[in-house]
Amino acid sequence: MDISISRLPDRLIFKLYQKPTPTGRIIHYAAVQPFSVKFNTAVNLRNYYLSSSDLIFHTDIQKLFSDTLHGNGYPAKFIDSVSHFHPTPEIPISKPKYFFIPFIGPSSTIIKKLLCSLDPKICIDFTKHNTVQQKYFSKTKDAIPNSQSGVVYKVPCSDCPGVYIGKTSQHLKKRMSQHQYDVKKEYVCTKRFQNVVLAVRIMYEK
């Protein structure tokens, strides 16, 4: 199915166009299918026919629609009901609004009732407040200084312009401890940096 377009002096008009040899076949009324499938097929076909044509052609389109249904075994009563069917417009459903307030006793319940009375879409729920854990166990571990890893670090010497730049995937504190241990043991690989390491001034040290 196609659409034919005609030009008027002030506008274009549209009309459903069918080839000279249309089959007109849709799901047959006698087919073993639920009634809802047949009804929805007919309604969708009617809506397509009417929406594809200008208002001045709707009388002819309605007759074409009725003939199509009749040719597929649909009874006159069914055709009449579909022709006058108008779906009920959907009413938009407003979504509820959720809010959370701390529960601090009976006053929280009163506040909840007051807020819900202002708007039925408001939903209030409570959260824990001032629990024993928050009072006494909010920080169960001390902060680990220099716990950064995968960093590039720079150690300046306090006695000369020299600096030592290194890269480590370990925690920075652990790596610096290794430097200090190497200097203490006077390993050759790090001995030339002993003045630098002994005067450590780490940017991350607290």
Largest sheet: 2 strands, antiparallel
Number of strands: 6
Overall pLDDT confidence: 76
**Helix content class:** 25-40%
Order of helices and strands: EEHHHEHEHEEHHH
Class of secondary structure makeup? alpha+beta
Segments where pLDDT lies below 50 for 5+ residues? 199-206
Describe the structure.
This protein is 39% helix and 20% strand. It has 3 domains: 82 residues, no CATH class; 35 residues, no CATH class; 50 residues, no CATH class. Helix 4 links the parallel strand 3 and strand 4. It contains 8 helices and 6 strands. The chain has 206 residues and is an alpha+beta fold. The strands form 3 sheets. Strands 1-2 form a two-stranded antiparallel sheet. The chain starts with a strand and ends in an 8-residue tail after the last helix.
Features:
206 residues, alpha+beta, 3 domains, two-stranded antiparallel sheet, elongated
Give a summary of the structure in a few sentences.
The chain has 206 residues and is of the alpha+beta class. The protein has three domains: 2-83, no CATH class; 97-131, no CATH class; 149-198, no CATH class. The chain has eight helices and six strands.
